[in-house]
Amino acid sequence: MVAKISSGSSIYSALAYNHDKLKKDAAKVLLVNKMIEPVDGKYSIGLCSTSFEPYLSANKRTENPVIHISLNPDPKDKLSDEQFTQLAELYMNILGYGNQPYIVYKHEDIDRHHLHIVSVKVDETGKMIRDNFQHRLSMRICRELEQKFGLTPANEKQKDGVYNLKPVDYKKGDLKHQIANVVRPVAGSWYFQSFKEYKALHSLYNVHVAEVRGEKGGKLFHGIVYAALDEKGEVFGNPIKSSKFGKTTGYEVLQVRIEKSKEHIKNIKLKERPKQVISDTFQKSRNRKDFETKLLKQGISVLFWENDAGRIYGATFIDHKQKFVFNGSRLGKDFSANVFNERFGTQKQQQEETQSPQSDTTKHPEQANSSFENLSGLLEIQPLGENYEEEAFIRRMKRKKRRIQK
Fold this sequence. Notes:
- The chain has about 400 residues and is α+β, with helices and mostly antiparallel strands.
- The protein has three domains: about 1-155, BirA Bifunctional Protein, domain 2 (2-Layer Sandwich); about 170-265 and about 370-405, no CATH class; about 270-355, no CATH class.
- The protein contains 13 helices and twelve strands.
- Residues about 155-165 and about 345-390 have low confidence and may be disordered.
């Protein structure tokens, strides 16, 4: 079981997210603790907020007094509502929130049923509940609950390179929720040194990322939008702006994350492990497929960038164990595109280069599988107007496409 803990300043936002699921009959309330219970059994945002207000009013100095927790058993684990309720209550008691008001929602909008819990980190006296080492404690609680309820241990899910991030499946719908389950963890806990590496990682999980520049209210802005990819690597559905997923997925915060990642990668020497693994695997591999398979078994994915002729012009590696994504060139000249191309380049590429050595139809990673950019011109400054919403954005993409066709 995996637990995700986030803090915020707005109790309304945390409740609204879950009550939106209630309205759609995609969730239900399993448990409340020290909260006002409605006569008709129907919980409203207003009633729930009233239960939390005295605690929030007791200490207004705490910046992020709201805690939002999700508990996610393995999809194979089938728990009854009673078991889910017991699990949530035990988790909150051990975490130190047994005397706090909290509400437990069971989400049923996807096959993997899971829990969301909303509470506050300030007690009735105004004292803040200490959250030092909270994530470490949460992990220990999850291991204990896995044993008690016979759940699949989280570390057993990390086999053959399959980790907690789940690729988006556009056929299953609810794309916003699926994309959120990728972009939020990536932005908050992965290490990358460029926007291109950030994009490459998302593409592995069928999520397309693009920068958007424009003008709003007389001011230039620089933002990011996300979209799902289909089996052909083409954008499916409407793009979703980063604000829908939280501040950590936006342009400015990601720039800060990139700078911090550079420092962390250098100080912790994250390159050492993958560099040795990739080097050893490269020497022992019979062909490209064998190289990719052997790497994946050691927790590393590789994405090769190719042009139309099949020439490899770049490689991006994803170290799942260290949550680290990097271009091969960062490891040194022994890991350059030319080295991989000489070993894994296609016969078609070699023939075409022999016939016309001066031609180069290389596509950059930003252009690969990106009808998205081709249609919208996202990497150019576009005046998106005062109302920056997805529908207006799509209309502009369609108009641009029609102009190109003319």
